[in-house]
Amino acid sequence: MVRLINGKNIDTVAGIAYRILRTQEIFTHIEEFNNPDLTPCIYAMWHANQFLVHGIKHRNKVNILISNSIDGEIVARTCEKWGFKVIRGSSNKKGAVASTFQMIEQLKEGNYVAIMVDGPSGPLHKVKNGAIKIAQMSGAPIVPSYWYSPQKTFVSLPSWDKMKTPLGFCNILNLYGEPVYVKPDATDEELIQIKEQIKSSLEKLEEEAPAKYEEALKNQLWKKKK
Known about the structure:
The protein is of the alpha/beta class. It has six helices and nine strands. It has helices spanning 10-26, 70-82, 93-108, 130-138, 188-218, 221-224; strands at 28-33, 41-45, 62-67, 85-89, 112-116, 142-148, 154-156, 164-166, 170-176. The strands form two sheets. The protein has a seven-stranded mixed sheet with strand order 1-9-6-2-5-3-4, sandwiched between helices.
């Protein structure tokens, strides 16, 4: 079967994707709640919330891990057009090791890393080891991150991760949990506990999100930015 997307038209496809998403960004208004503003840090989120990176300050310092596939190439080129940094990785051991060290190097340079902790293909809401290992090796804290809007224009896509995205005018709130630190000499038992801590923090952010959004409305958070 001939692929509709290939090496010859991939830049064109990425350009079209960027223009469509950039148009949506004009109508998307993201504000932050309780971002600890730690530099460097690892922003950890569910795969469904990956677009929340657009609400993080200084996107030129945000590194996003993207696969080496053709589809990943489209995403990578689109992200670079937006001003994000991109780290390419793969599921094989060699590729995973290389991307891990790239992320550690970026953190040591004072930049951020964004990791979808249940990605790239699930299981849904199961925290994997990647972010924890990088935090352990780099000393950078993990900041649980979640985004929310009650508006009908904040929709879930029919994908395995139920990815959330704005579709039309949308006010969105980025919420952040308490930083999680991983000791270099953490035991296996402690690492398991940290996994549970990250999962619990993300679930707590989801639970608190509606009330925090109402608080932001009362404080006219979005109006103040206009």
